[in-house]
């Protein structure tokens, strides 16, 4: 997702939920389930969610996972998390910081000599998107092999993405850039001497028993039970090379695994409190609620075919992971102002409000 489209998206979703007047206390049935049903009624093929209130957990699957077969959407199905991956990447890197292997204010040049022309860019600036490093994966030209030529297995390596970013030159101002997190992945590999997938597995996936989560490198297919992803024309974009996304957006997971990871991260199981408090790899925002707003912490992901949010209330008592299986990458990067998901207010935010807002008293 481009920086501009991320800002427009959050603004549109907030306006939509405020107009809708989502209120969990007035819903006759489970409010999150009602919102997911509304998503499907208004254009999404299917929706999945994990919801937690205290220790009480609920899981929902609404609509269809596969338009061709009519297979139902079920909560255990896997999906592409897109930029939710960045929370995993930041956590691995911050664990190395906690271990004294590197510092957040280390120049990237120290670990990746000669890769960036601006030798003053720091590790922290990669994680908080203030490096000004360009993101070539924000243009229609970048995705032409996929969207125009339908070469779904086409490989664009992280090294090639970084090369194109450097050749373009920096943004004039700090901006959200996937390239930052590709560089962060390379820093992890240089510091540890291991490939990033091994570090991810040993530090997060195995300890938390996230058995349905993986980081594919070039395989364009999803394996095992999975939610299919579609564009606005309902063309199947499930098969799509993850090669260019790597540590910025290639993780495949389930709503349960993402929820377990985020609960461990925000609960202090993965990082020291002072590093968790930095919020690196996360995207806090003020969630619209009845009578005001509530600050929530988490991350969102959008990419070919999938649109997902994973957020937790500030007191960590409420949590939701929701994924909808329609997102039009061509509309996102096309720059023509076309909304990349169905409907004027049919994104995930109403379900987030239903799950995370404190009931009115």
Automatic annotation (TrEMBL):
Residues 42-278 form the Beta-lactamase-related domain. Residues 1-27 form the signal peptide. Coiled coil: none annotated. This is Beta-lactamase-related domain-containing protein. Keywords: Signal. Pfam families: Beta-lactamase (PF00144). Residues 333-361 are annotated as: Disordered. SUPFAM superfamilies: beta-lactamase/transpeptidase-like (SSF56601). The keyword Metal-binding does not apply.
């Amino acid at each position: 997702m481009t920086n501009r489209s991320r800002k427009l998206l959050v603004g549109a979703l907030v306006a939509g939920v405020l107009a809708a007047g989502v209120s969990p206390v007035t819903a006759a049935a489970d409010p999150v389930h009602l919102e997911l049903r509304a998503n499907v009624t208004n254009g999404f093929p299917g929706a999945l969610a994990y919801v937690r209130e205290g220790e009480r957990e609920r899981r929902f699957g609404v609509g269809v996972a596969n338009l061709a077969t009519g297979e139902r959407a079920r909560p255990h199905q896997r999906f592409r998390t897109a930029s939710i991956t960045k929370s995993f990447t930041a956590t691995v890197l911050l664990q190395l910081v906690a271990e004294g292997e590197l510092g957040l204010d280390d120049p990237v040049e120290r670990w990746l000599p000669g890769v960036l022309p601006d030798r003053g860019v720091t590790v922290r600036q990669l994680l908080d998107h203030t490096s000004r490093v360009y993101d070539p994966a924000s243009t229609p030209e970048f995705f032409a092999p996929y969207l125009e030529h339908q070469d779904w297995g086409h490989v664009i390596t992280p090294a090639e993405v970084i090369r194109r970013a450097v050749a373009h030159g920096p943004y004039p101002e700090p901006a959200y850039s996937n390239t930052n997190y590709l560089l962060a992945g390379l820093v992890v590999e240089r510091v540890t001497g291991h490939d990033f997938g091994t570090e991810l597995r040993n530090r997060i996936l195995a300890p938390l028993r996230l058995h349905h989560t993986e980081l594919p490198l070039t395989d364009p297919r999803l394996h095992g039970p999975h939610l299919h992803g579609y564009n606005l024309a309902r063309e199947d974009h499930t098969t799509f090379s993850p090669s260019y996304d790597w540590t910025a957006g290639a993780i495949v997971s389930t709503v349960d695994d993402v929820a377990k990871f985020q609960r461990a991260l925000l609960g202090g199981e993965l990082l020291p409190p002072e590093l968790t408090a930095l919020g690196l790899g996360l995207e806090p925002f003020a969630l619209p609620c009845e009578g005001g707003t509530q600050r929530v912490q988490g991350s969102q992901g959008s990419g070919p075919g999938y649109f997902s949010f994973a957020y937790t209330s500030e007191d960590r008592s409420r949590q939701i992971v929701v994924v909808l299986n329609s997102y039009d990458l061509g509309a996102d990067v096309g720059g023509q102002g076309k909304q990349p998901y169905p409907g004027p207010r049919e994104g995930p935010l109403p379900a987030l409000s239903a799950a995370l807002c404190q009931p009115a008293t």
